[in-house]
Design brief:
Layout lengths: L2 H21 L4 E2 H11 L8 H13 L3 E6 L7 E6 L1 H32 L1
Antiparallel strand pairs: 1-3, 2-3
Length: 117
């Protein structure tokens, strides 16, 4: 399997969880979300605006996020997103699913690695 394809599919499958998690603490704008993902993953994960903003719009359309435009003097207008109550419920569910998935993969990968020794 092509490693880049695998990375892309893994990122696609975790993008919602990452975004919802970053909005749990406070509202953020898209550029800040993108930079936090990159910083907290030590550059492993990057979201370009071409893929991030359509995802934010989809999450808003589903009712998981609420966006509002904010204008500050000397800055350009930014859309800040906050997590809604339904979004918090989805985040809880996705976290549980992710933890279950990671445990299962670790169990299989650990057993396979030990069997090779």
């Amino acid at each position: 399997m092509d490693p880049q394809l695998f990375d892309r599919e893994l990122k696609k499958g975790s993008a919602e969880l990452l975004i919802l998690s970053l909005l749990e603490a406070r509202p953020r704008h898209g550029y800040e979300i993108s930079k936090l993902i990159e910083q907290r993953s030590d550059g492993t994960l990057r979201f370009h605006v071409a893929s991030l903003y359509p995802l934010l719009y989809r999450l808003e359309k589903r009712g998981w996020l609420q966006g509002r435009w904010v204008e500050k003097s000397g800055q350009r207008r930014r859309r800040y997103y906050r997590l809604t109550a339904p979004g918090r419920a989805v985040l809880t569910s996705q976290r549980h699913g992710w933890q279950t998935f990671v445990r299962a993969v670790n169990a299989i990968a650990s057993v396979a690695a030990e069997a090779e020794r």
